[in-house]
Write a structure and sequence with these properties.
Elements (H helix, E strand, L loop, with lengths): L1 H33 L4 H13 L5 H10 L4 H11 L4 H13 L3 H14 L3 H13 L3 H13 L6 H4 L5 H8 L5 H12 L3 H8 L6 H16 L3 H11 L1 H6 L18 E2 L5 E6 L2 E6 L6 E9 L8 E7 L5 E6 L4 E8 L6 E10 L1
Helix pairs in contact: 1-2, 2-3, 3-4, 4-5, 5-6, 6-7, 7-8, 8-10, 11-12, 11-13, 12-13, 13-14
């Protein structure tokens, strides 16, 4: 009778010991897998992991990193164990593509995008399509990649060859990407494309800022007429006069044909509607405080008549050529060992 009572306790003890053994084995596998295992360690833990029914595909991907001679075999094993293993699918797709097996590469990418709706999977599909000049797939996966894009979309934009394709993609996604694509075109010095693309954009503070940057880049790239027309489309008064914001009614942008304010550590410029307050610390060399580009039309530009107040003694206006029919006019403070403060309210050219 006593033996019969002890049997359940013995069985529980055996099960507990067995459970502890399985648990400790699983813990060993997990700990080893997370702490930069060597090739030899992975080869030891993989049989245990599979015997315990633990997910092992990630370990096979790690082994592929450490055993390049058997990379493809390890990746295939990872996919066999887990058809959803994204890293293995994408890496194997590249391997077979560059070996010339496009159908298999396409199948693997479709398997990856079928299981994973993510920036990584769609970006891999996009770059593959771009390498193959498959416009339909480029359009499809660029749109999907933008939907899942974390922040930086430049990698997606780089795959959009030609404005026609870019327009088709961007017309299907959030409008914010259109403004961002304009930034990309300017940054890539694709100024002619940027000029054409911006024509169909609406108005927003961000888009207006990018258009000013484009004006700047066009002007100094020698495309002065295009820069002038773009700026004039936003500012009709500039179109009529050839200069802008002489009464300082709007905040100077330091771009295009607006006032450019000094960023020198010895200067401080604070705009208020109708004036700029300027503070200048003692400095050893002449300092440019602000400047503006002016189109010279009916008469020569020879003199500046400012409306200002404060410590303006010694300040002077400097003229320099900025191309045919253009002058750059700069306000300069001479070298001095004293601080000065003044307010500039308006400028008149003669």
């Amino acid at each position: 009778m006593t033996r019969l009572i002890r049997l359940p306790f013995l069985l529980c003890w055996v099960l507990a010991v067995g459970g502890l053994t399985v648990s400790s084995s699983a813990a060993w596998v997990l700990w080893t897998g997370k702490h930069s295992p060597t090739k030899e360690q992975l080869l030891k833990i993989l049989p245990t992991a599979e015997a315990l029914g633990m997910p092992s595909s990630a370990y096979w991907v790690q082994l592929a990193d450490l055993d390049p001679d058997q990379e493809e075999a390890h990746l295939r094993t990872a996919i066999k164990n887990n058809p959803r293993e994204l890293k293995a699918l994408l890496r194997l797709a590249l391997i077979v593509e560059f070996r010339g097996d496009r159908p298999q590469a396409l199948k693997l990418i479709d398997q990856a995008t079928g299981y994973h709706r993510s920036y990584m999977s769609y970006m891999a599909a996009l770059t593959q399509a771009a390498r193959w000049w498959d416009a339909n797939r480029v359009e499809r996966f660029a749109r999907l990649a933008l939907e899942y894009c974390p922040r930086d979309a430049d990698g997606i934009y780089a795959q959009l060859t030609g404005l026609g394709l870019a327009n088709r993609v961007l017309s299907q996604v959030d409008r914010k990407w259109s403004a961002d694509y304009l930034r990309f075109l300017i940054g890539q010095a694709r100024l002619t494309d940027a000029l054409q693309f911006q024509a169909n954009l609406g108005k927003s503070p961000q888009i207006d800022r990018y258009k000013l940057e484009l004006c700047d880049r066009l002007f100094w790239n020698g495309q002065k007429r295009e820069a002038t027309e773009l700026f004039a489309a936003q500012h009709p008064d500039f179109a009529a006069d050839g200069f802008f914001n002489l009464k300082l009614r709007t905040r100077p942008s330091s771009l295009g044909f607006d006032w450019r304010l000094s960023q020198h550590e010895k200067t401080g410029l604070n705009w208020r509607p109708g004036e700029v307050e300027v503070k200048v610390q003692a400095h050893a060399q002449a300092l440019e405080l602000m400047s503006i580009l002016v189109e010279v039309r009916k008469r020569r530009l020879e003199r500046v008549i400012p409306s200002w107040a404060g410590e303006t003694d010694g300040l002077y206006w400097q003229f320099s050529e900025a191309g045919p029919e253009w002058k750059r006019v700069a306000l300069v403070a001479p070298a001095g060992d004293r601080e000065r403060r003044f307010r500039l309210m308006e400028v008149h050219f003669e």
